[in-house]
Structure formats: C-alpha cells, structure tokens
Amino acid sequence: MRPLRLDLHGFTVFREPTTVDFTDADFFALVGPTGSGKSTILDAMCFALYGTVPRWGDRRRIENALAPSTAQAKVRLVFEASGARFVATRVVRRDSKGRVSTAHAGLEQLPPDFDLRTFDAAVAERGEAAGAGRDQGGLVGTVLAGTWSEMEEAVLDAVGLPYEQFTSCVILPQGEFARFLHAKPAQRQEILVNLLGLHIYQRIGERAGLRQREAEAKVAATRSLLAELTGADDAALAAAEQALSAAQTVVRDVEELLPALEEAHRAGEAAQAELTAVERDLAALQSVRPPAGLAGLHSEVSAARDAAAVAQAAVEAAEDQEEKARAELAAAGDRTELTRLLDAHAERARLNTRLTEVAEALATATADHERAAARLAKARAEVEKTAAAVRAAQADVEAATTADRAASLRVHLVAGQPCPVCEQPVTTIPATGSPRLRAAREKLARAEKAAQAAAETERTEDRALREADRRLAAVTAKHQESAARLAALESTLDGAPDVAAVQAALAAIAEKEKAVAACAEAVRTARQSVRAAAGRLATAEERLRRAWQEYDRARDAVAALGPPSADRERIVESWQALDAWARDRTADRSRDRDACLAAAEKALAALTDVTGRLDALLAPTGVAVTTRDAAGYRQAAALAVERARAARDRVLERRERAARLTEQIEAHEREARVAKALAQHLRANQFERWLLTEALDALVEGASRILNDLSNGRYELTHKDGEFSVIDHWDARIPRAVRTLSGGETFQASLSLALALSEQLAGLSSASASLESILLDEGFGTLDPDTMDTVAATLENLAARGDRMVGVVTHVTGLAERIPVRFEVSRDARGTARVTRVSV
What we know:
6-stranded antiparallel β-sheet
C-alpha cells in the first residue's frame, strides 16, 4: 500500500480542511514540535482503511476521531496497491445527544488512466450531481464497498493485509522491535507468538478436538440410522423379486380373461338397450290418456264466438248514439267563450263597486292633503315670527352690553390696588352685572327656545305633508287604474248578450254534456262486454289448442310405433282412436319386455362369472378395482406390477443407502482419527518450539540480509540458542553480542528485524499483500549525533533501495534536514493543526 493523498476535516486536531499530497514523496518526514499532530496523520491513514487507530486501544472508541468542538470528522485516503488506485473514505458524526456513529464508509477503485491532478474537480462534480438528484454510483470509478460492514473485506482484498498485520508491516512500532532485539529467549518467544499470530495453532488444535468429537458423534448417529434400516437383506430382495414375478403372471392371466369379460359386457349392454327401448315404449303408450273435460269442447267454442259477435254489434250501436250526442253538443255553442262573457259581466260589476270606493278614498286623501298644507304654512309663519323675536332680543343684548362697558372692567379691580382707568386706589369694589343686561339675555334665551320649538313643529308638519302627498298619489293611481280597466271591459261587452242569456246557453250545454256522458258510458259498458266475450272465446280456443297440443305430444311420443292419423276437425274422435290403439300396443310391448328381461339375466350371469374369476386373480395383490370393465382390470393389474416393482426398488434403495451409510461411517471414523492425531500433535510443546525455531531462523536470515544492505556490507545477524549476535565483516568476522552495538547500529539491527518480520507477516496474509511503503513513528530525539548520523544514513539507504516509500515521524531538525521532502505540522493558539510541504 502506497499513500498518494490524504484529506482530513474535523479529525482530532485537524479541525479545518487539510490535504497532504504524497504523490512524488518517495522519502519524506513528518516534522514539527511534540504534540503538533504528526502521528495523527498516520492515525488518519489507518482510520480511513480500518476504522480504528493502534494507540486508541479499543477499536470501538471511534469518538476519539472527533475534535471536541466539531460534530463531524471526515477522512479520505487515496492510495495505490499492486498497480491499482483506490479511495477510502470514512465519516463520523456526533448527534444532538452526544452519541458518535459512522455516517459513511466506502471504498472506490479509480480508473487506470485517472489523473490525480483532476481529483478535486471530480469530487466537486460528484457533489453537484448528488445535489441535482443524479445517481453517480461512485467518484469516477467502481464502488467496492458502500457501508462500514463491507469495508473490512474490501480493504483486505485491496491492501492484502488485515488490521493487525498492517500495523506491524506498514506502520512499524520500532521501540517494540528494539526490545525484541535485546529480549530474553522466553520473552522473544512470547513476542513472536503475538506478532506472528502463532496462537492460531492452539485454536487449530482446539478446533481439531471439536472436529474429532463431531466426527465421533456422526459415527454414532450414522450407526443408529444403519441399525434402524430394515428390509435391506438378501431375503427381503428375493421376496420382492418373487412378488414382482407373481404380479407379472397376474397381468398375463387377466389379459386372457378380458375377451370373455368384454363379450359379457357387450351381451349385457345389448339386452339392456333392448329392455330400455321396450320400457320407453311402454311408458310412452301408458302416457296416452285423453284430457279431462274433452266432451262439449267444440260446442263451448261455438257459443263463445256467437256471444262475441253480439257484443260487438252492441258496441257499434252505442258508438253511433255517442257520435250523434257529440254533434248536438258541438252545435250548442262554446262553453269557454260563454264562461268568459259571464266572468266579464261579474268583473264589470266588481269594478263599478271598487271605483266608487276609490273615489271616496280619493276625496278623503285630497282633504287630508289640504289640511296638512295649511298646517305647514302656519308652522312656517310661526318660524318667521320666532326668528324675528330672536333677532330683536339679540339687538337688546348688544345695546345693554354697550351701555354697561364698565361692567367688563370691574372684574379686574382689586381692593387697595390702583384703578386701571383713573389710577386712584380702589377702596370698595362695586357690584358686578347690570339688571338691563340680565333681562335682555333672559329674553334672548326665551326667544331662542321658542324658535327651536317652532322649527321642530315645522319639520313635523313637513313630514306630515309628504306622507299626505304619498297617500294622495297612491289613491289617485288606483282610481285611474280602475277607471281604465272598466272602460276596456265596457268596450269588450258592447253588443254581447246579457247575463241571463249567457246563463241559459250554459245550462243547455250542460244538458248536452250529460247526454254525451251517458252515451260514452254505454259505449264503455258495451266494450267491456266485448272484452269479456273475447276472453271467454280465447279461453275456449286455448283449451282446444292445448287439447290438440297434448294429442300431438302423445302421438309424437309413439310415432315410431305407427299410431292412427288425426282428424283436425274432430278432437274427441281423434283422441278416442289414439287411446284405443295405445291400449292394444301396450299389451304387445309387455310381452316383448318379458323376453328382454330373460336375455339380460343371462348376460348378467355370464358377467358375474368372469368378474369373479378376475377378482380372484387380483385378490392376492391387494389392489382395488375401480371399474368393472376391461380398462379397470387392466389398470389394476398394471398397478399391482408397479407396486411390486416399487417395493423391489425400495429394497434396492435401502440396500444402496445401507452401503452409503457404511461408507459414511468409515469416512467419519477416518476424520475422527485424523482430527484426534492433529489435536494431539498441536497439544505437544515440541511442535510450538519447532515452529518458533523455524520462524526465528527465517526471521534472522531475512533480517541479516537487510542489515547487510543497510550497513553497507559490514554487519550480518545470527542467533544461537535464542540469543542474537552480529558478525562484523570489518573486524575479522568476529561475532559479538547485540548489546555491544552503538545506538545507530542498534537502530539498523532493529529496523532490519522490523522489515524482515513485516515481510513474513505479509506472507502469512490471506490476500496478496503489496508492501510498497513503510512509515516509522519512532522517537529519534534521544539519539546522539553519531547515532543520528547512522540512523539518517540507514534511512537514506532504505529509501535508495527503491522498493518502498519511506516516511518517518520526527521533531529532530538535524534528521529532518537530510530528508528531501518534509511536511511541517504546526498548531495555532486555538489548537488547530495545519500541514505545510517543504521540498529541498
């Protein structure tokens, strides 16, 4: 796995959006003061891939990803693995109750020709498309995982390493491997078991013991099934074969008897058919019976026809009389016109009366109007009189006021003060107010009150006059309307007959109408008689028609027997002739029925004999016969063969199942033996010691090769009885203990062990791991200058090998200055971290 780009927003100290571009950084350093957030960048890479960080301790503590003042953290890592490029994204949110959960987790594979320089534009375009409601499916490539539950398997397929191996192969805990270099053999064995995951063999042993117990249980269960499986021996197979042969013999015997069965069936069917025909003829002959009331039917029909003719003649006579009465009524005059004349005479009398009443009301309204006008004129004169009195009183007030000007000054006098007119001291204040002025003002008040009363009286009389005008206009309109209507009515009645003549004409018309009504009633009565006579005639003719229908049905039913012909004019004689003929033929067909019964009994005896023999053949098979014909017996015989064959096949199937169960028992027993042996081997201490020895040999061999490269051919690593030592090629190849190495040399040896172990862990991965980078989160501040120089040279040699990206986390300036690409991490006063890239 090789990181190409890391985007952080809200992740621990990186509160603001931050991007770290590793595209061309083959050898880089994350530098900055302690606590600035250098290691957080490595934590973010690990979190984007696996959703956890080694130093959190608990994989469920995802709330550690959020800065205290933020509600959401987002981490996105673009990386390369085995030539393919991927994007891993995780988003963590805090809800209103403070609960933290994963809001999004996804892994996408970018197209092979994707240009990372267009990454930001592609992300922005996807955001706009999502806002517009379009489904993009991914960034610009293929979605491999869309939920946190899908991420583990997808990341394992892409990176090739599970979380535990990733944190030991890519992000290396160097301090632990320095401890591993100097540890005692027992401690080193414990470290190897933990790092290499050798405890899995203990679980394999436990699993083998479980498999042994499961296999032994399967052996017992299969033996129980085999014991319960009966009827699978040779005797059962022979009995089944014998039953099948017997059933096949029954089939042959049944086929030999079937012709006789079919012949008996044919004979019986023929006898039954003949008997059925005779019975049908007898039933038809016995149903020939003349209907009741047949005598006198012709005379009844003739009498009904005569009555209908008489009733029709009476209707015609009544209709003639009605027509004459209606002609006389038409000549008597128009009732409607005479009624209108009579109504006009009555209306004229009513209008004369109303006109008299309206004339009286008009005279009264005119007198009322004149009286109201006189009262209004009097009121208006009183208004003028009171107005003149008010004007006179106002003149008196003004005169009195002028005469008593000094009264207006007296209100300003103060005893002991000088007079404003004569400037002499005022000793006594004279009385205020003048009797003349008071009298004038009282007179003015009385005059104004009288004027108001006169004005109110004028308004009242004016309203009364307007009401009298309205009543006079209404009465005048009624008088004019009544006079106009009376004039029009007089014009209409000019030259018309008087009331007595009109009433006499109407009385004559009424008499004619009564005569017409009487004639109409006579016509209705005559027509009812016609309908009654027609009903009786229809009833008689219907009886005659039904009698002929019954005759025709009876004769048609026996037409095949040659009945006598009918005389269509003589229903009684025709029925009598048919009845006599039917009695004679009934005696003949009765003798024929006796002969048919004898033939049917003979056929039934033959059929009973054949079916008895067939039933006896099929009885041993236990098969029931559904129908007693050739098909039914043939089907029963075939079913007996099929049952016998099925029984034989079940025996064969049980024998095959018994063989399979026997094979299963042997397979389960072999599995139990193998699992037992494996469990015993894995429980032995020698296997673990041998496995650890082999792993340590492979580890030392790989670390020695790497140490030789890093030390420019000076050192090799070896071990004996679990103790590490180095061979110094610059000092006569003399082995010496690793405790004699300097700080820089110890770092070289520890790094060699770390790289060798990471390669072994990658080999143990279930997927194809690609170790394309190594990130060292190690404290270099305690190293002396010489050791620091050695460490720097070692890292330069490691980067120069070209097979991995090398990144280190340090706050040591001297080491950082020797690395070509530096990412400087700093924190401001608010605790927000930022990253700046510096290239040499």
